[in-house]
Design goal:
This protein is 57% helix and 11% strand. The model has no long low-confidence stretch (mean pLDDT 85). It is an alpha/beta fold and 518 residues long. It has 4 domains: 124 residues, Rossmann fold (3-Layer(aba) Sandwich); 145 residues, Alpha-Beta Plaits (2-Layer Sandwich); 97 residues; 105 residues, Orthogonal Bundle (Arc Repressor Mutant, subunit A). α3 runs parallel beside α4. The protein is elongated. The longest helix has 39 residues.
């Protein structure tokens, strides 16, 4: 808490400072001045919480100082000091609602009581201000959240009716969405207050204000509004300045998205919905952190997308890796940074391309597909958080396919059917030689003989090694628990899985994971 002491007598000022236990009162900052003019300048530079002032001072007396301070800070408690029993000064002190009026020479106990009362008054006003601010923020947040829904024609509650009616009158709105992870929005209250102070200072310089709320812990929704419609250049400058403010608090990836500008509160949903759709574009250009409707990106037609899987299948049938690479490169150029395609549309396209690759694998009788398995591409596709990851996964699979096509000896039809059946059903703990033999229409004994002859290992050995290789891939991800990995690769008994894994690999599953991740 901050106190300003104004007295033209230096001995009085020093005596006050040394005689009072300021820390016990909760006051940790003291400023002093030798007259009203200097005290007023000091107050303008750093507004005090309490004013302790002599009544009679040269150039500007304590009463005039208190009047000027009241204009700047109406709730600041004032304690007057005087060596004169002057009724006019007392009247002025009463009119200014002074906390106390103490006479010189001081009674330290009396002055301490007056200061205690002043401190109590400051704390009461601070609590009230914090309560009012919290209530106002909650009211604004509810209103901001309501504006993200269509058809809003009235305030969400009685508390927000006044601001709703005020903003309904001829205001222009532009919705901004800031996406970051939860770490940013879990900043301390002090830092968040500082962030919003700087953000609102930026907006005020353009004669704009905002209502904000949070959605799903990673989205901050800001409805910017003003009486005059902001042009595209102004809104782009605002986005850039807010980005610069964000960068002082947050160094990770984030996006700032701006919707179209609309007139009237009932149209705010249109701006919000436009921003949501534009936010989807960040999937295709994650390195960019500002998206506005005034910029253009690549456009992709549905006709173009629909023909791609068939084109890719035709290229695979030609078994030419260079033309397949050209296809991948052209695909990346056409989709990267586009503004009209949704992420799920891209995922659906790549799923179809993966299926074409799977068909080519079957056609070429390639039963093993290395680290990138085409048997369950959907999960891998859905784990991609941006287009770059998705395209990288796909091109790696294409390259792997051609590498295997070039180096792997083609299996016989029977052997391919066996391996293919195992790669599809290895997670089934009931998978057995009998089930495999029925699938390929051979007796169990003949099946085992054929397999051993063509591969040099027993069918059980192959199945075990296949499952362990899959387990090693899963263990490389620390999010997968060992017992869950066991089930995913066809072992219902976790202990048996552990013994089998150690027998094949030489390490337990936990030891293998620790070694791989170290």
């Amino acid at each position: 808490m901050h106190i300003l002491i104004a007295d033209d007598e230096e001995l009085t000022r020093k005596g006050l400072i040394s005689s009072i236990d300021w820390t016990a009162l909760g006051i940790n900052k003291l400023d002093s001045a030798d007259d009203g003019i200097h005290a007023l300048a000091c107050a303008k530079a750093s507004m005090p919480d309490i004013l302790l002032t002599d009544v009679r001072m040269p150039r500007m007396n304590g009463i005039d100082l208190a009047k000027r301070l009241r204009e700047m800070s109406p709730d600041c408690p004032i304690i007057f000091m005087s060596g004169y029993s002057d009724k006019e000064y007392l009247k002025a002190a009463i009119h200014l609602k002074a906390v106390s009026y103490v006479e010189k020479p001081f009674d330290i106990a009396e002055l301490t009581n007056a200061l205690t009362e002043a401190v109590s008054s400051v704390r009461k006003h601070q609590l009230q201000a914090e309560s009012n601010l919290f209530f106002l923020r909650e009211t604004h947040s509810k209103l901001a959240l309501a504006l993200t829904l269509p058809g809003v024609t009235h305030a969400p509650d009685s508390a927000s009716e006044e601001i709703f009616h005020h903003l309904s009158q001829n205001q222009f709105f532009t919705t901004m969405i800031i996406r970051a992870d939860q770490q940013f929005f879990r900043m301390s209250d002090e830092l968040l207050h500082e962030f919003f102070t700087r953000l609102n200072q930026c907006l005020q310089s353009y004669h704009m204000e905002e209502l904000h709320t949070m959605k799903h812990a990673e989205y901050m929704i800001l409805h910017l509004y003003s009486a005059k419609k902001a042009d595209a250049r102004t809104l782009q400058l605002i986005c850039q300045q807010i980005r610069d403010i964000l960068l002082t608090y947050y160094k990770e990836n984030f996006q700032i998205v701006l919707g179209d500008t609309v007139k009237g509160m009932e149209q705010v949903y249109e701006s919000y919905n436009n921003a949501v759709l534009l936010l989807q574009s960040s999937f295709f250009a994650p390195e960019q952190n500002i998206y506005t409707p005034y910029e253009t990106g690549t456009q992709v037609t549905s006709a173009y997308l629909s023909q791609l899987p068939e084109q890719f299948a035709q290229l695979l049938s030609e078994k030419n890796p260079s033309t397949a690479q050209d296809f991948c490169d052209a695909l990346s150029v056409s989709l990267h940074g586009n503004r009209n395609l949704l992420p799920n549309q891209a995922r659906d396209l790549y799923y179809k391309l993966f299926l074409a690759l799977l068909d080519a694998q079957h056609e070429a009788k390639i039963s093993s597909f290395g680290e990138i398995s085409l048997q369950s591409p959907l999960e891998q596709i859905n784990n991609c958080t941006n287009y770059e990851q998705l395209h990288t996964l796909f091109t790696a699979a294409v390259n792997q396919y051609f590498d295997l096509l070039k180096t792997q000896q083609t299996d016989s039809s029977t052997l391919f059917l066996i391996k293919d059946y195992i790669s599809t059903n290895y997670s089934d703990d009931n998978l057995s030689i009998k089930a495999i033999s029925e699938h390929v229409h051979l007796s169990s004994s003949y099946l085992c003989t054929v397999f051993k002859t063509e591969t040099g290992q027993t069918l059980n050995q192959y199945l075990t090694n296949f499952r362990i290789e899959k387990a090693k891939q899963l263990l490389a991800d620390p999010r997968n628990k060992v017992n869950e990995v066991a089930i995913q690769v066809g072992y219902s008994d976790c202990n048996y899985f552990g013994k089998t894994f150690k027998k094949v690999v030489g390490l337990s599953p936990s030891e293998y994971r620790e070694k791989e991740l170290s």
